[in-house]
Amino acid sequence: MNKITRAFISVLRQSSSTCTSSTLLGRQLSYKSDLSLDKIYPSARLQLYTPPPPPPGSANKFNGYIPMDKLEITYSRSSGPGGQHVNTVNTKVDVRFKLAEAQWIPEETRQKLLKVLANKITKEGYYYVKSDVSRSQQLNLADALEKLRTVIRAQEVEVAAPSEETLERVRRRQERAARERLQLKRGRAQVKADRQGPGGVDF
Amino acid sequence: MAHLRETSDKALKLLRTLPRVQIGNLRPNPNSKQNDKRGRAQHGGDKHGAGNKGSGQRQNFMRLGYETGNQPFYMRFPYEPYYKGHHMKRQYPPISLLQLQVLIDTNRIDVSQPVDISTLCNSGLLNLKPAEMEYGFQLTDEGLDNFKAKINIEVQHANEAVIAAIERNGGVIRTAYYDPRSLHMLSNAKKWFEKGVPIPNRMMPPQDALDYYTDAKNRGYLANPEEISKDRLVLAQKYGYQLPRIEDDPSFAMLSAAKDPRQVFYGLEPGWLINVVDKTIVRRKK
C-alpha cells in the first residue's frame, strides 16, 4: 500500500515539479468523505496538539498534575520470585522528591503533608514512594504515582466534625461506662470487706 | 552422562546392601498374579457377588443419574450456551510491542510512513485471514518497557499501557475499524488491485464496536480529536512521562496523518481505480 502511494506520488511528481512529497502527501491525505471528522465534530480542534499543564484547582486544591521533571525516578531490581526476569530486569521504581520544595503541591496541603509524613521523610528532606507490584517498569511507575496522588489527596479530604447527637451519645456512653466500672469496684470492695468479719463495733 | 548407571550396576549395588534372599523376603511382581478364585463353595460362592437383599441382589437398579425423585443433575440445565456464537465473534490476532520493535529494528517495516494493516501484511511476516473472523490486529503489552520507536500506527485494538508506550516515544496510535471487505483489500492490496475493481467505501463499525471506536481513551478513529489530545496529557500523567511536544516534531505531518473514516488506503480515495500494470489511477471526472 505505501509502495503504491510512493508510486502515485512519483507519477504526480512528473506532472508538478515544485511540490515536495510531504505537501503532496498532505494534500492526498485531505480526502474528506461524508463522515469525515470535521463533519462529526464541527467545533473541535482537529489537529493534534499538546495541551499545557492544567492550572491549580480552585480553593488551593491539588489538581492531580505532577511535573515529571521535578521528580527523581530511579529503577532497580525487584524482589520475590520470577526467575530470570526478576533477576535481570529493573522493574522496581523509586520516585522521590523534596517535599518542602514541592511547589506543585498547594501550600496548605504541603504543610499538612510535612506534619503527617514527618517520620517518613529522609534526612535530606526527600519523600519517596516505591513500587514493585507488577512485572513491568512502566506499570510500576504508574502505580507509584497513583500511590503518591492518593497520599496527597488524603490530606485534602475534609473530615466532617461529629454532630451534636453523636457527641451526646458518646458522652452518655462514657458516663455509663464509668458508672458501671465504679459499681463493680464498689462490689469487689464490699466482698473483700465482708471477708474480714465484723469490726469492733458494739451494736 | 556419568551419574546414570546401567540397570545391572544398580542391581549389583542393591545386592550388596539388601538382606539375603529367602522365601520370606520374596514377593511376586505387581500384577503378575491373578486371583483364580471361582464362584463356588464356601468362600468363593453363594451370592454371585451381589450381596444381600435390596435392589443390588434383585438386580433392579434405579437408572443411572436418578436422584430418588428430585430433578436430577443431568436434567437441571436445559440450555448451556457456553460457546454460543463463538464462531461469529470478532477476533483480533495479537502483535506484541516486542514483535513490532523487532520488525522495525530489522527494517521489515518502514516507520517513515504511517503503519497500518497493509504495511504489516506487506512485510510478509504477519498475515490476516478476514474469512476466519479476523477483524484486524491488536497490540499487546509484551515488550512494553523496551519499546523505543516513534511511529504512526493504526491497529484495531490496543490497551491503555500500549497507547502510553507509543505516545511516550513521541508516536501516534489510532484504533480503527475495517469491515471484512476492506480487510481483504488491505491484507493483499496488490492482488486486489489486479482485479480492476474501484476502491469501495469503508463501512462503519457495528453497534457493539461503535462505543469503542468513538472513545478518545482508546484513540478511536471516530473519537473527538480534541478529546484525544487532552487524553494524551492525562495518560502521560498517569504513566509518568513528559508528553513530547508533537507539534514541534519535524515529522509532525506524517505523525498526524490520519485516514478519513471512509477511506481504506492512505492516499487513495474510494471510487478510484488503480491500474497496476500502467501504474496509473483512473478516477471519475468531477
From TrEMBL, chain A:
Sorted keywords for this record are: Hydrolase
> Looking at the UniProt record for this protein, which Gene Ontology cellular component terms does it annotate, in alphabetical order?
mitochondrial large ribosomal subunit
Boundaries of each Prokaryotic-type class I peptide chain release factors domain copy? Answer: 77-93
Gene3D superfamilies, alphabetically? 3.30.160.20
Query: What is the enzyme's class at the highest EC level?
Result: hydrolase
Q: Does the UniProt entry include the keyword Oxidoreductase?
A: no
Q: Where is this region: Disordered?
A: 179-203
Q: Which E.C. number(s) belong to this protein?
A: 3.1.1.29
Q: Name one GO biological process term.
A: mitochondrial translational termination
What highest taxon heads this organism's lineage? Eukaryota
Query: Is-annotated flag, keyword Hydrolase?
Result: yes
Q: Please give the Pfam families that the UniProt record associates with this protein.
A: RF-1 (PF00472)
Which molecular function GO terms apply here?
peptidyl-tRNA hydrolase activity; translation release factor activity, codon nonspecific
Q: Which family does it belong to?
A: Belongs to the prokaryotic/mitochondrial release factor family. Mitochondrion-specific ribosomal protein mL62 subfamily.
Q: What is this protein called?
A: Large ribosomal subunit protein mL62
Automatic annotation (TrEMBL), chain B:
**In what ranges is there compositional bias, type Basic and acidic residues?**
34-49
Region (Disordered) residue spans: 19-58
**All residue ranges annotated as the Large ribosomal subunit protein uL15/eL18 domain in the record:** 94-173
Does Ribosomal protein count among this protein's keywords? Answer: yes
Q: What's in the keyword line of the UniProt record?
A: Ribonucleoprotein, Ribosomal protein
Tell me which SUPFAM superfamilies the record gives.
Answer: Ribosomal proteins L15p and L18e
One Pfam family name is Ribosomal_L27A
Query: Which Gene Ontology terms describe the biological processes this protein takes part in?
Result: translation
Top-level taxonomic group:
Eukaryota
InterPro entries annotated for this entry? Ribosomal_uL15/eL18 (IPR021131), Ribosomal_uL15/eL18_sf (IPR036227), Ribosomal_uL15_bac-type (IPR005749)
Question: Does this UniProt record's set of keywords contain Repeat?
Answer: no
GO function term, MF aspect, one: structural constituent of ribosome
Q: Name one GO cellular component term.
A: mitochondrial large ribosomal subunit
Q: Family, per the entry?
A: Belongs to the universal ribosomal protein uL15 family.
Q: What is this protein called?
A: Large ribosomal subunit protein uL15m
